[in-house]
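Go through this chain.

——
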Amino acid sequence: MQYKYAKKTPLDELIKYNAKYFRDNDFVASCEALQSKWRHEKRFPMGKYGNYLEDDFAITTKSNFLTEKN
């Protein structure tokens, strides 16, 4: 079985979406970039990091990265 791997997310894109943390490997950085893009496109407020939702917003709206509520 052959697996296809996601392409490495460019550094400028990681920075644009506040998803660049120097401890990350390429896979983790790509995942965080996808979460950050999703949050950004929905215009949800950013939490501590770009791929986090603001805590109060997430609690009151019951929003997260796994549901399609919003």
